[in-house]
User: What shape does this take?
Amino acid sequence: MTKFVSRFVKDESGATAIEYGLIAALIAVVIIAAVTALGTTISEKFTEVVEGMGGSV
Assistant: This one.
């Protein structure tokens, strides 16, 4: 029983998996924020182009 507890305390594979999960979540949040900001900018530019050509949105 003592060996099991000492192995369990020394095992860091679960901590590593959690760290990778947190990193993946952070990267996903950054990508979502970038795509949202870029999408808004592109939408505004297309609206300007359409209005510049005499069209309506």
Q: What stands out?
A: DSSP finds two helices and no strands in the chain. Residues 4 and 10 are 10 Å apart (CA to CA).
